[in-house]
Amino acid sequence: LPSSHVLQRVLSPTSHLDGDGAAAPMETGPQTGTPPCSPSSQQPAVKDDFQFILCERCHQESPNLKLLTCLHTLCLDCLSENKPIGQCPICRMAIPQASGIPDMDNLLFTNLQTRLNIYKKLSNSSGLSCSRCRSETAAVWCSECEEFLCTKCFEDHQWFFKKRSHEARRVEELRAESAHQFLEDTRKSYNLFCSSPGHADQGHISTIYCRKCEKPLCCSCALLDSQHAPFCDIRSETQRRQEELGIMSQELKQKRSSFEATYAALQDEAVRLEQVQQEMRELIRQRVEQLVRLIRQEEEELLGLVEAQQEQGRQEVVRELQRVEGVLRRMEAGERLVEKMSLYATEQEVMDMQPFIKDSLEQLQQLRPPATGDQAQPGDLAECRARLQAL
């Protein structure tokens, strides 16, 4: 078809281009009266449903996502921060690379981020500019070139790529789709280039897979090099790899049940240990409080026992102190009286008072001081000491 006819059919709501540039029936967009999903209503779904394409540590978009051997995905910034640890911060599995940076890129998540950003542009912008002329409003989007094109640039695009099967769709139609539908529709098989040196730079497309070398080959390498065998179609090999991953995933699902049961048992054990620990803490607290009360009670009883046993001895000591104090005062008075008589007494006074004073002094001379150890000996504290030892 002439490019103007192709443009008319692409922009028509009832047709689109097929792989050869010919017009083919196209699904009609939303009917009149049925408003398409608004960007504001689609954005929360996009944000919530595609968290898996972000870095699993910082939860941010990154053009450099690395896939670890534990199958967790981290960005280069998080891997650089985690380098001294040498383990995955999610599951603590060791990172085998000495640099701490895995060799495998997560191409799936990186490409999904790119395609999802295209969808966000569709949803957030009321007027998209043409990716080529930058001046006109975009009317279509080419999934092969991943460019928004105005009507004029799209006509030039179709003329330039008339031998290729580029699919172009209306921007209004794409805006009406959900993010999931957009990603499914834009999923395509990227061209694989030949693995032979120099062929990738020359644009040699690989359609054959060598099972012996485990590399994609172009037709020339497959025919000219006899070392490559056996062969298979590259698409069948990709399908086989997908099926192999699917089978392994099913086997992992079956094996996962045993790990889930173990995990649940470990969780129950952790809960049980926590309960036992909490119960023991409470028991210790109660017992300690009980012991404190008992010790306080024992303290009061021992203090009362000491007070009762020592009261009698204390009273005896007080009485002995008073008696000794009286004797000392008598001696002091006798010494003072004898001293004064020798200084001031007359003969008559000496004759009259001497016998009486002599008797009193003789009584004082007959007194003996009490043994200090016996008099000051406190009451028996053996019972108190035994109870303290028991405590």
UniProtKB/TrEMBL annotation:
<dbReference type="InterPro" id="IPR017907">
    <property type="entry name" value="Znf_RING_CS"/>
</dbReference>
<keyword id="KW-0175">Coiled coil</keyword>
<dbReference type="GO" id="GO:0008270">
    <property type="term" value="F:zinc ion binding"/>
</dbReference>
<feature type="coiled-coil region">
    <location>
        <begin position="249"/>
        <end position="308"/>
    </location>
</feature>
<keyword id="KW-0479">Metal-binding</keyword>
<dbReference type="InterPro" id="IPR013083">
    <property type="entry name" value="Znf_RING/FYVE/PHD"/>
</dbReference>
<feature type="compositionally biased region" description="Polar residues">
    <location>
        <begin position="29"/>
        <end position="44"/>
    </location>
</feature>
<dbReference type="GO" id="GO:0005654">
    <property type="term" value="C:nucleoplasm"/>
</dbReference>
<dbReference type="Pfam" id="PF12126">
    <property type="entry name" value="PML_CC"/>
</dbReference>
<feature type="domain" description="B box-type">
    <location>
        <begin position="125"/>
        <end position="171"/>
    </location>
</feature>
<dbReference type="InterPro" id="IPR000315">
    <property type="entry name" value="Znf_B-box"/>
</dbReference>
<keyword id="KW-0863">Zinc-finger</keyword>
<feature type="region of interest" description="Disordered">
    <location>
        <begin position="12"/>
        <end position="44"/>
    </location>
</feature>
<dbReference type="GO" id="GO:0044790">
    <property type="term" value="P:suppression of viral release by host"/>
</dbReference>
<dbReference type="InterPro" id="IPR021978">
    <property type="entry name" value="PML-like_CC"/>
</dbReference>
<dbReference type="Pfam" id="PF22586">
    <property type="entry name" value="ANCHR-like_BBOX"/>
</dbReference>
<dbReference type="InterPro" id="IPR001841">
    <property type="entry name" value="Znf_RING"/>
</dbReference>
<dbReference type="GO" id="GO:0045087">
    <property type="term" value="P:innate immune response"/>
</dbReference>
<dbReference type="GO" id="GO:0008630">
    <property type="term" value="P:intrinsic apoptotic signaling pathway in response to DNA damage"/>
</dbReference>
<protein>
    <submittedName>
        <fullName>Protein PML</fullName>
    </submittedName>
</protein>
<feature type="domain" description="RING-type">
    <location>
        <begin position="55"/>
        <end position="92"/>
    </location>
</feature>
<dbReference type="InterPro" id="IPR047153">
    <property type="entry name" value="TRIM45/56/19-like"/>
</dbReference>
<keyword id="KW-0862">Zinc</keyword>
